Amino acid sequence: IYNAKGVFSDTIHLSNKGLRGSGTLKYLSSETVSNDFLFTPDSTSAKVRNYQLAKVAGQVEFPEAMVKEGSIKWLPASNVMTVNNSKKEKFNLFGNKALLDGSLLLSPSGLKGKGLLAFDNAEVRSNTYNFKTDAFTSDTADFKLLTPDKKEEALRVHVFKTAIDFASRQGHFTATGAGALMEFPVIKYNCVVDEFDWLMDKN
Questions:
Q1: Nearest of 165, 176, 150 to residue 200 by alpha carbon
Q2: CA distances from 166 to 126, 131, 197 (A)
Q3: Whole-angstrom distance, CA of residue 34 vs CA of residue 37
Q4: Which of 2, 84, 164, 165 could tie 76 with a disulfide, CB 3.0–4.6 Å?
Q5: Global pTM?
Q6: Closest to 52 measured CA to CA, from 61, 63, 41
């Protein structure tokens, strides 16, 4: 469909409700399963019953991603697919290493996203994620490191450049200005830093 930018399989029917389908849509390394796709000349939209993105390594990288309930909007002319999770289901990323409550933007140039990303005992919030096979970066993000029981914030910073690598289990954070506030709410201590590293297995 759409000049071979995607492949749809199963059932298509045309009525006064438009051109609709039930089945599986394949785009790049993703597969979207829905009972109700709506195909128009310039887009496809659907409520998702299952969405999966296969991990791809190389010049363009995609991480493994999946969600069992959400929605998609695919714009073939722009070659972009937007995927949103539902209120009940979050995205599972990096092979069960992280959960995202937000949206993903898939294109031939890579995978971007925004929202709240939770992993280990940490949370990152950003509107500018760039995802790789086993890592992600953001030009502007808020980061929180929680206590082991996840009831309190042990550390937090705002508006930092962020790079997290799940393969090396390391994070690197850089202040977007000449220095930024780092807060330790539990011990009630603050300081100003230019950058810092996080060894994920040592907290």
A1: 165
A2: 18, 11, 14
A3: 6
A4: 2
A5: 0.93
A6: 63
Residue type, position 108, single letter: P
Tokens read off for 196: 């810092």
Task: Look at residues 170, 173, 174, 172 and name the one whose alpha carbon lies nearest to residue 202.
Answer: 170
The predicted-structure confidence for 116-149, as pLDDT tens digits, reads as follows 999 999 999 999 999 999 999 999 999 999 998 8
Rg of the chain taking only CA atoms, in angstroms: 19
CB atoms within 10 A of CB 13: 10
Q: Exposed, middle or buried, 151 (CB in 10 Å: 0-12/13-18/19+)?
A: exposed
Spatial CA neighbour of 83 closest among 93, 71, 101: 71
pLDDT in tens, 189-202: 999 999 999 999 88
Q: How many CB atoms lie within 10 A of CB 68?
A: 17
